[in-house]
Amino acid sequence: MAHPNSDIIPTVEGLAYGGDYNPEQWPREVWDEDVRLMREAGVNIVSVNIFAWASVHPGPDTWDFEQLDAIMDLLASAGIKADLATSTASPPPWFSQLHPETLPVNAEGVRLNSGARAEYCPHAPAFQSKVAEMASRLAERYADHPALAMWHVGNEYYRSCFCDLAADAFRAWLQDRHGSLAGLNDAWGTTFWSQTYSDWSQVLPPRICAETPNPGLLLDWQRFSSDALLKLFRSEADAITAFSPDKPITTNLMVTGDFSFLDYHRWGDHVTGPNRLVATDHYLIPPHDSDIEWPAQVAFGADASRGLAAGSPWLLMEQSTNSSAWRRGYFAKRPGDQLRHSLSYVARGSEGAMYFQWRASRYGAERYHSAMLPHGGEDSKVFREVKEFGAQLRRLAEIKGSKVVSRAAILLDFESCWAAKTPGQPSSDMATYPELRRWHAALWRRGITTDLANPAWDLSAYEYVFAPHLYLLDSDANLRAYVENGGRLVIGPYSGVVDHNDHVHPGLPGAIRDLTGVRVEEFVPLAEGERAQLDDGTEGQTWTEAAHAIDAEVIASFKDYPATGAVFHRRLGRGEVWYLATRPADLNPLFNRLGLFSDTPEGLELVRRRHEDGRTYLFAINHTDQSHTVAASGTNLLTGTQWTGELAPGETAVIRE
Ligand code: GLA
């Protein structure tokens, strides 16, 4: 049975609240305490069996569901739902020993050993058939279990492998994509450095080689690796559907850092179909490693997740109450951070808030990873806030299914990110992700709710669309349509430069030359820390271009070399397009020029969710240490009282308008 995206986990009452739960790490008596405390905290769903392959399938001919049965029954008796994982993310040592060819090989040609997790080659037939079998056995057994709410396939897919099996699969994928060896040679531009292939057997994964590898090969390898993992995901999802057609099926996508290993927009199509939902994991980067404040990081993770669900509700599958174990430098959040962060994810479209993990592990690589129930126990800031947020979520049940209202979009294209990362570029500092995050944070500080959208999508609902760095673009058609129909588009430098094969378009800036009415003569990158002065008093950093107006107005120019236009503006149809021939050191003057004002003080987060029938909810989160007035009228769902207008320092409110 298909269900609409407005109720992504139909059997969970209200919003989802819980986390990864690993009872296999604990004696039975602890399970009872877990369930008691989960109920106290308002937990209504937990992810189980993620890393339990070794207990469910302890040997080639043994299956043992006793423990999982007990866990599922316990949850059912406590009224807690299960996000039941297929446990295929971490093959145990027996499997790797029996099928050594399933251990992944890295780009240096070294076969990795078992002993951690995710040790598999996605292209190894023994692994492929085993994971489909596991999914099938679990689905057959638990399809009608009363605890089952949804399926969790694998975990955080990212593994690539460079072995001979991978090479065979890569060749088959390339034959499909390019049709013939001539097509491949053409796409990869193999006349360069005499790389021409005369037989398919010569084509290899991008294993380490003597000098800069072919960028076309690297780009296709990324596409292939993403498709291969998607195929693996789908094989499990299809095996589940055969027995359990009515429950959502998902996997946890990663939106932390440069989350561009997989083409998540293509993945989104597969996890948002009937019975499938987009779920993401998001972790904060500590202050010593990021100049973006935590609330803005949370907003980016949430807005990126919503983008993967193409604007529909999604689910935050993992976040952390405090530090994760894998960050450089442990950190503890300050009182209230957890409440504000979790509410911000919900404000931005998540249908609940889940964590890694319910209870902190006593052993293993993540023994110092934070949890809902920390090593410090129940009498802790963390657990008190976990209980408080659980109570808040229960009061917000009626927002389920509503969508976020956004004024602006930032364009994100995974293929473009991959292409921009290939070596041999004029500047290694023109990285897409940090730039998207910088623009997003600047908009967040202005109180502008921003989507992350694919450049090929319908953009007509947005007042503003920003393309800070869209390096790869085949055609301007969709962007042109947006502008001609009244949109305001801002394109950053070094955009539109290459096509889908990473071939430089003739006549820079290639795909956007006609759209912007600008001609780029040459790239003039800046040294680290160097600033370009513009004649409007603003500064550029990292990159400049000698750019000339063909059919555009020059708004500002570089004072020194290249001494050409730096900011261009063009009216087109009912809209306008801006082109920046440098990265603005400060984005605020640009936003002011665009008339993109908001009267929200910095650090006061205001986001609106709207039901299809028009009911709206204003989420107000005060990340500052001052009181702020929030002009709205209605009931604050968190307190059940009429909204009075004043939001105290650190406080949150959800106003039913
Ligand atoms: C990922 C994984 C989890 C856990 C957390 C720790 O999100 O999915 O299994 O390792 O990281 O932050």
Folded structure, characterized:
With 657 residues, this protein is α/β, with parallel strands linked by helices. The strands form 5 sheets. It has a 9-stranded parallel sheet with strand order 5-4-3-2-1-9-8-7-6, with helices on one face. Helix 1 links the parallel strand 1 and strand 2 (45-48). Helix 5 packs parallel to helix 8 (215-243) and helix 10 crosses helix 14 (432-445). It is globular and about 75 Å long. The model has no long low-confidence stretch (mean pLDDT 95). Alpha-D-galactopyranose binds at residues 155-156, 252, 281, 283, 318, 324, 326, 356, 366, 369.
Secondary structure elements and their pairing?
Elements: E1 16-21, H1 28-41, E2 45-48, H2 53-56, H3 66-78, E3 81-85, H4 93-98, H5 125-142, E4 148-152, H6 164-178, H7 181-188, H8 215-243, E5 249-250, E6 252-254, H9 264-271, E7 279-281, H10 294-308, E8 314-318, H11 337-347, E9 350-355, H12 381-395, E10 403-404, E11 408-411, H13 414-421, H14 432-445, E12 450-453, E13 464-467, H15 477-484, E14 488-491, H16 513-516, E15 518-525, E16 531-533, E17 539-549, E18 553-557, E19 565-572, E20 575-580, E21 582-584, H17 588-593, E22 604-610, E23 616-622, E24 628-629, E25 635-636, E26 641-642, E27 646-647, E28 652-656
Parallel strand pairs: 1-2, 1-9, 2-3, 3-4, 4-5, 6-7, 7-8, 8-9, 11-12, 11-13, 13-14, 14-20
Antiparallel strand pairs: 10-22, 15-17, 16-17, 17-21, 18-19, 19-20, 22-23, 23-28, 24-27, 25-26, 25-28
